[in-house]
Amino acid sequence: MNKIAETEFEEMVQPISAEETAIDRIITDDLKGAPADYEPEWSEYLLDQLSDHELINGAPTVDGLRRIAEKCFGEIVDSRSQIVETPCADNGMRCTVCHTLRVIKYRNGQQVQVDGCVDVVYHKTPYPFKDHLVATADTRAEGKALRRALKIRVITAEELQHEDEEEALSSDEAVNDQQVLAINQLCKRLNISVVAIAKDQYNTIKSINDLRNLEARLLISKLSGLQRTPDDVSESYIGYDENWKSDFYGSKK
Asked: How far is C-alpha 161 from the chain's CA centre?
């Protein structure tokens, strides 16, 4: 390219700077009073911004995270995937995708870049996703990158589709933070008392931390069912209490 053509090209394409995008953005009412991304309430705040259809069994969809990222966190200025490994017989039908995000934060104009890499294996992926391994890996990698950018302590619904169901059902692990957030979010949307429904289903527990992983899964499944048929919610469950963790959550956070 000659010097004249190069100069003309530079005049046509100007680099995006933080000053021209997020740093001059007026903080909306949605962000005023919102917790900082390093505060414990941040994850719950983000989940509250999701629509019902953007939550599957209490887990956010990638589409939902992408939307709230630009609503509550920053402007996505670059979002691209790199296929690291394509599925073939030699690699056991494994697909590896790395997704890179560049985001300019609304609060301070700082630009952050994060990567999310995911492996998807044919024989461990449920139908119909196993027939679209590259697309499946791409979606999950983007979800992982969004989670890292947002510093949110949850797994996306698309990533959970990759779980081995038999292994999950046989697990005797304790309830995890992801499940507690999901239970809280579903109860909040249904105006259900977390304590009331948890103790009704498992009357020996003294706190939500006493639940086993499988018990939490079954409780989330029940709540998801009630979300589809809210008229079936028992009167004894009605009344969400945002302070339920003070007496029913082991860490007392």
From this structure: 13
Instruction: Report how far residue 118's alpha carbon sits from residue 138's, in angstroms, rounded to the nearest whole number.
Output: 8
- Residue 31 near residue 72, CB atoms below 8 Å: yes
Copy the structure tokens of residue 251: 């860490």
Buried/exposed code over 14-31 (b: 16+ C-beta within 10 A; e: otherwise): eeeebeebbbeeeeeeee
Give the tens place of pLDDT for each residue, 28-44: 556 778 899 999 899 99
Q: How confident is the model over 163-217, as pLDDT tens digits?
A: 655 555 556 789 999 999 999 999 999 999 999 999 999 999 999 999 999 999 9
Contact 227, 191 (CB under 8 A): no
Q: Is 85 helix (H, G, I), strand (E, B) or coil?
A: strand
For 108, phi then psi, to 5°, come to -135, 0
Using CA atoms, how far apart are residues 96 and 82, in angstroms rounded to an integer?
9
Q: Which phi and psi (to 5°) does residue 140 adopt?
A: -70, -35
Nearest CA-CA partner of 97 in 137, 127, 136, 145: 137
In order of 101, 162, 190, the CA distances from 119 in angstroms are 18, 10, 35
